[in-house]
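Forwarding the complex inputs:
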Amino acid sequence: MPSDPAKTLQVCNCLALRQAARHVTQFYDQCLAPTGLRTTQFSILAKLKRLGPMTINALARELVMDRTTLGRTMLPLERDGLISIEDGKADRRSKELHLTKEGADRLRAAGRLWSEAQTQFEAAFGGERAAKLRDELRALVSSDLGTWLDADKNRRPSTRAAP
Amino acid sequence: MPSDPAKTLQVCNCLALRQAARHVTQFYDQCLAPTGLRTTQFSILAKLKRLGPMTINALARELVMDRTTLGRTMLPLERDGLISIEDGKADRRSKELHLTKEGADRLRAAGRLWSEAQTQFEAAFGGERAAKLRDELRALVSSDLGTWLDADKNRRPSTRAAP
DNA sequence: TGACAATATGCGTATATGCGCGCATATTAC
DNA sequence: GTAATATGCGCGCATATACGCATATTGTCA
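Prediction (whole assembly, four chains):
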């Protein structure tokens, strides 16, 4: 049933997603390049702008990123003064990420270029089509996919599995 | 026109793609983990199996990867004896990547796990739906998106731009 | 045949990604 | 009120990603 190595690459959902992500990321990154921001960094700043100061964990969940990934990815942003890191008030273990004035300025500048990228993208691919694609991708992110083999990590809030 | 930082993250095609790619990659990677292969490595081996020995450039194009990325990503595979690197026959600048016996064995084992991942994925997301999504993602990869600002890199084969 | 453009790669640098482990603090159970 | 457990982070390790520059060949055309 499985075998058939010939078709594997043509039907692999993961490969299709990664290839598309690489292709599109390069495009957006090139558009944002004049501001010195990558799309990942842009999305971090935008989230902070939108939701205000947040802890690493909370922001990582928002961005569908691994906690440790965000913990490192934000370092260049702090180094460049676009965000600041303060101790968590309620929980002293946590750290709050704040968008600085410089960060907001940079975000504003990048936003203009992002908008152009978005426009070009939808001119090439279709606005309706892009919207539908985003819907599917969002649904995908929300889907479970299973593999609770090792369990624990990022476990669902409730619905504990076995006794 | 652009502004509206509120909606940016909800409509960004690039962010949607990257988040979905991260989510799905983690799933497939977990499924393949028992074989010690990542999905990226799996796709490299599968391509070599399917198309036979290839140069770095050719394989990179096939996989929609950056040339330099593949150049590094393949090193662990060579180190582990899953591929071998031989000098190009016709062109001494090039290197041919070969799938070794070990590589083929590992690929076969991984293929079984990949198949399970694929099945679980489509059980959760829908087989038809997944097929449609892949079609859209492939179309996306084929689309131009413009931004030929700096030009050159990975330039289209023909249609040289300006004199 | 001798420049010269084009092509195939490598390398340095930098960010992106995520796992496992360990530490500190918080929360809950008894 | 302390022990067990859960949570928030950092770090070491390893791969993934890609840009710019440097180098080695190859192909071409005057």
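Residues 22, 25-26, 29, 55-57, 67-68, 71-72, 88, 91, 93-95 of chain A lie near DNA strand D (CB under 10 Å from a C1').
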